């Protein structure tokens, strides 16, 4: 069996499906780093061949494009669609007392959902606490079915490969490090060129 040499793989959270199938029948054919965007093979006669998933990889457009920076303090948005059956048709539900809780063990955020079009949504800033949280909607209203929705997410710090090259909040530390190096260099120059005066008899 000819071994496959992975040259470029996807991220750990990616998946590959066939777009020709209906959405309900879709199942990922390859998940995570098993999806190879560019792969190489070597035959028994030492011939080598490279398979590329797209011709765009041979263009410099991606390499020359600017890196998009994440906006600091960006708000996170949660949205949910709530409908009710009226006269045999599903119509948007009208209510102003639906609450969203952002829960770890206790709720860190509790706020009302605002109706926008046919869905309810709200924007809020995540707490500066790491852990596994839940977006939780627990709605009870007389005459209606109990509505419960829970979505689990993780709040974690960025990995060391996801930070910017130079973090603005660390500029004072950069300045202290470079000033220390400059001071050591000047001290070395002065010390090496300093000549003691000869003592006179």
TrEMBL record:
Key word Membrane present: yes
Transmembrane portions of the chain: 171-192
InterPro entries (UniProt xref): DDOST_48_kDa_subunit, OST48_MD
Domain OST48 middle, first and last residues per copy: 77-195
GO term, biological process aspect, one: protein N-linked glycosylation via asparagine
Record has Membrane as a keyword: yes
Organism: Rattus norvegicus (Rat)
One Gene Ontology CC term in the entry: endoplasmic reticulum membrane
Pfam short name (any one): OST48_MD
Keywords: Membrane, Transmembrane, Transmembrane helix
Protein name, entry field: RCG30980, isoform CRA_d
PANTHER family assigned to the protein according to its UniProt record, in alphabetical order: DOLICHYL-DIPHOSPHOOLIGOSACCHARIDE--PROTEIN GLYCOSYLTRANSFERASE 48 KDA SUBUNIT
């Amino acid at each position: 069996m000819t071994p496959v040499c992975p040259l470029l793989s996807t991220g750990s959270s990616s998946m590959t499906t066939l777009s020709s199938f209906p959405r309900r029948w879709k199942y990922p054919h390859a998940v995570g780093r098993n999806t190879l965007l560019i792969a190489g093979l070597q035959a028994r006669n030492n011939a080598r061949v490279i398979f590329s998933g797209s011709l765009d990889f041979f263009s410099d457009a991606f390499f020359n494009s600017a890196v998009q920076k994440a906006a600091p303090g960006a708000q996170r948005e949660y949205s949910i669609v709530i409908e009710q059956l009226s006269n045999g048709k599903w119509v948007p539900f009208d209510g102003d007392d639906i609450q969203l809780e952002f829960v770890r063990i206790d709720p860190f955020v509790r706020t009302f959902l605002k109706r926008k079009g046919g869905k309810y949504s709200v924007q809020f800033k995540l707490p500066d606490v790491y852990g596994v949280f839940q977006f939780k909607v627990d709605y009870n209203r007389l005459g209606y079915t109990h509505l419960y929705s829970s979505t689990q997410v993780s709040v974690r710090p960025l990995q060391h490969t996801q930070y910017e090259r130079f973090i603005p909040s660390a500029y004072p530390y950069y300045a202290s490090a470079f000033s220390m190096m400059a001071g050591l260099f000047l001290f070395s120059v002065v010390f090496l060129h300093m000549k003691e005066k000869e003592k006179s008899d």
